[in-house]
Amino acid sequence: MYNATDNVVEGAKMNVISANELKTRGISAIEQALAEEPEAIVSVRGKDRFVVLELAQYQHLRECELEVALAEARADVAAGRVVRESPEEHLARLDAMA
């Protein structure tokens, strides 16, 4: 939960940039916020709307998501929760579901 008074998200400090500050200061507002913390929140009309982070951090998070998806797929294969079929059989099965 976010506490606007303390700029705290679930006990972790996170910088908050207002949309107005972003409009007036531009990218320098983001650069300053990211120099202090790896992420920053952009608030619009007092409500948190966006999270900004450096590209390297974003790429790391995406890699983590893909690793989790791969692990889940491997677990499904190992547990037999897969269907092995030809493309034609697959399309026929999809048509039967519709």
What does the model show?
The protein is α+β, with helices and mostly antiparallel strands. The protein folds into 2 domains: 2-53, YefM-like domain (YefM-like fold, 3-Layer(aba) Sandwich), CATH 3.40.1620.10; 56-97. The protein is 53% helix and 23% strand. It has helices spanning 19-25, 27-36, 55-78, 87-97; strands spanning 2-3, 8-9, 12-13, 15-18, 39-44, 47-53. The strands form 2 sheets. It has a 3-stranded antiparallel β-sheet with strand order 1-2-3, with no helix packed on it. A 3-stranded mixed β-sheet has the order 4-5-6. Strand 1 and strand 2 form a beta hairpin. The model is unreliable at 1-8 (pLDDT under 50).
N- and C-termini, Cα separation: 41 Å
- How much strand? 15-25%
Indicate the overall shape: elongated
CATH class value of the largest domain: Alpha Beta
Q: Roughly what percent helix?
A: 40-55%
Protein name: Antitoxin
Family: Belongs to the phD/YefM antitoxin family.
InterPro entries: YefM-like_sf (IPR036165)
Question: How would you summarize what this structure contains?
Answer:
This protein is 53% helix and 23% strand.
Task: Please render the helix and strand layout as text.
Layout (H helix, E strand, L loop, with lengths): L1 E2 L4 E2 L2 E2 L1 E4 H7 L1 H10 L2 E6 L2 E7 L1 H24 L8 H11 L1
Parallel strand pairs: 4-5
Antiparallel strand pairs: 1-2, 2-3, 5-6
Keyword list:
98 residues, YefM-like fold, elongated, 2 domains, alpha+beta, Antitoxin, three-stranded mixed beta sheet, YefM-like_sf, three-stranded antiparallel beta sheet, 4 helices
